[in-house]
Structure formats: C-alpha cells, structure tokens
Amino acid sequence: MTAYIDIGVNLTGSSFSGDLDDVIERAARAGVGRMIVTGTDADHSRAALALCARYPGRLFATAGVHPHHADDYTPESAACIRELCADDSVVAVGECGLDFNRNYSTPASQRAAFESQLELAAETGRPVFLHQRDARADFTAIMRSAMPQLSGAVAHCFTGGAAEAADYLELGMYIGVTGWICDERRGRELQQAVTQIPLQRILLETDAPYLLPRDLAQKPVKSRRNEPCYLPHICAVLARYMNVDVDELAQAALANTQRLFSIE
C-alpha cells in the first residue's frame, strides 16, 4: 500500500474528541499512517504535542499562533513555542501568517506575531507552516526577507492561482494541497495552478475536519466531517489535474514531507 503523511490535521478540537482512535485507525488502513497535528494557539499547540505522546511515531505537531489569534500574541506565546520546539515531535512553527479576510486580529498584530514566529523558526531550525488569505503582497514581502534564515516553508492549504504559486515557488517554498482541488465550484483556479507546480514542491493534506472533498463517492463517517483517511482520494484527484501518475505523486509528496519536516 502507498504510504502517506497528512501534513495538516486539526485533531485537537471537539470534532474528533469522541472517536479519535477510530479516526487514526481508519487513516492507517487507508495508508495514512502518519499525520502532523496543527497548533493554532498555545493551548492547541500543547494539546497537539500531548497527542504525539499518546500516538508516538504516528503523530507529529506544529507549534504556533494563527493570525486570527495574533491580538493575543505575547512574549509568553513566543516562550511557549520555543519550549515546545525543544521536543522532537514538534516539526514546524505555525500555523502562522496573515489573514486580512476577516481581520479577527488587527493587521499590525498579525504582522508582529508572524515576524516573531519566523524569528523563532530560524532560531530553532524548524520550517514554518504558513497561512495566507487576502494578504498576498504583505505575506510575500515578509517571506522574501525571512526565507534565507529558514530551513524551509510550506504554504498550507493553498487555494490560489498560478501567479501566486509562482511567487511561492520562486521563494523556495513547498505548496500544500487539500480537498479544495476536488471542488468543482471554487477549485478551478487551483486546478489550473497545480499544472505549474513541480513534483519536488508538492505536499498533501486534508486540513481535517475542514474541507471535506465534495466529490467523495463514499458517505463520511460523520456528516460533513473531513478525515485523514480521505487523503489518498485527494492525491488521486490532484494527480489527474497535474497529469502525473498517482503513485508517482504520492511518493514525491512523501519524500518532500520527510525532507521538509525531517521525518524519517
């Protein structure tokens, strides 16, 4: 069976609190034996690391503060991320970045929190797990300055077009693709963009429980909830749009994930 690593799963929330063991076992049966649990603030980052201890060798974690929570970012937040990164199970700083779509936190707070976390990533040698929405110009400028000091970066849950993908590829970033590629309504721009992404820069993720693929033939275990077991389906759809063999894509994504996050 082809092996997969889901680089972005949100397992610390209530969506998975009642059946997490089953979710992880379903994923393993589908070939998704390992996953990276996303940290979105101090509490969820600590919870992500606690899950790694509960499922050693199967789960890894990120540690960071999402731009929605940037108004609450403090020196204590930075200290927490630094402390969590001392654990080998924490493989990236993030989810961090900019989100000017709803501005749950002020743009100024978002920039400050983002730049602080980029500094932490450089300090700890961890790559960054990135979020960007409606902030492309500011985000790209900040990343252009930061990339020389970083071990690597991934644009998590990329939904943009070819020009945006080209910006990130020029910076040397990886691009994470979710079930957005399966959406016949909203995914058209992405479906065109992925033809320009080389195999050496592609990563696979579900962003579960969000972004359930719209074209699943099977009914979800829980209504409207995405799960890491659907990652092979996302890979198959992405391979079709990239015009590559699905096994070749899966193997490339696995190798890229292991390289970026230093997972053996």
In total, the number of strands is 8
Which CATH architecture is right? Alpha-Beta Barrel
Measured on Cα atoms, how large is the radius of gyration? 17 Å
Number of domains: 1
Q: For the report, how would you describe the main beta sheet?
A: 8 strands, parallel
Order of helices and strands: EHEHEHEHEHEHEHEHH
Strand content: 15-25%
Q: Which spans of ≥5 residues are poorly predicted at pLDDT below 50? A: none
* Helix run count: 9
SS-based structural class?
alpha/beta
**Roughly how much helix do the residues carry, as a percent range?**
25-40%
CATH superfamily: Metal-dependent hydrolases
CATH fold name, please? Answer: TIM Barrel
Strand order within the widest beta sheet: 1-2-3-4-5-6-7-8
Mean pLDDT equals 97
Principal-axis shape equals globular
Provide a descriptive summary of the structure in words.
- With 264 residues, the protein is of the alpha/beta class.
- It has one domain (4-261): Metal-dependent hydrolases (TIM Barrel, Alpha-Beta Barrel), CATH 3.20.20.
- Helix content is 40%, strand content 16%.
- The protein has an eight-stranded parallel beta sheet with strand order 1-2-3-4-5-6-7-8.
- Strand 5 (128-133), helix 5 (136-146) and strand 6 (153-155) form a beta-alpha-beta unit.
- It starts with a strand and ends with a helix.
- The mean pLDDT is 97.
